[in-house]
């Protein structure tokens, strides 16, 4: 199966993956022809960003629990803390690194995903300052165009049940991005 992308759209974030693109003219529009397999084979770096205590780490913990459960493992929420986890999901090595509010944590998370030969890496991070700068530098070193940033809704002052629902929705959104 093929998908057509008009030239000039920035839909493929991992240009360094050496995807051979076929150029084709349809009517007056020049398009790139890319197979869905080529798109699914590209590595991805996803950053869940937000200020301190808005729910990034909690959402990523929920994602870790969700994937572990899908794979037949049970992990207690309190066991996760800020630990990094790697899973094999549908043939992809997925690294999830919840802690990332400072440059040191992001640096350790980058070392971790590099050691685990990731296909998908998901980081909790700030969108500015040293954490974002280090993550953006890592992305450049990998030859990617950019981090796939997703904003974490600020649930800091929300009632418990609503906060949990929104953080679970964030975890589910990230889970869909893995497939």
Attribute tags:
8 strands, 6 helices, 179 residues, alpha/beta, 25% strand, three-stranded antiparallel β-sheet
> How far is the first residue's CA from the last residue's CA?
17 Å
Q: Would you count the extended β strands for me?
A: 8
Kindly provide the radius of gyration, computed on alpha-carbon positions and rounded to a whole number of angstroms.
17 Å
Q: What share of the residues does DSSP label as strand, in percent?
A: 15-25%
Mean pLDDT: 79
Count of helical stretches: 6
Helix content: 25-40%
- From the structure provided, what is the oligomeric state, counting identical versus distinct chains? single chain
Shape annotation: globular
Describe this structure in words.
Mean pLDDT is 79; it is low at 1-25 and 30-40. This protein is of the alpha/beta class and 179 residues long. A hairpin with a 2-residue loop joins strand 2 (22-26) and strand 3 (29-35). It has helices at 36-41, 56-70, 77-80, 103-115, 129-141, 160-178; strands at residues 2-6, 22-26, 29-35, 44-49, 85-89, 92-97, 120-125, 148-151. The longest helix is centred in the C-terminal third of the chain and has 19 residues, at 160-178. The strands form two sheets. A five-stranded mixed β-sheet has the order 5-6-7-4-8, with helices on both faces. A three-stranded antiparallel β-sheet has the order 1-3-2. The chain contains six helices and eight strands, in the order βββαβααββαβαβα.
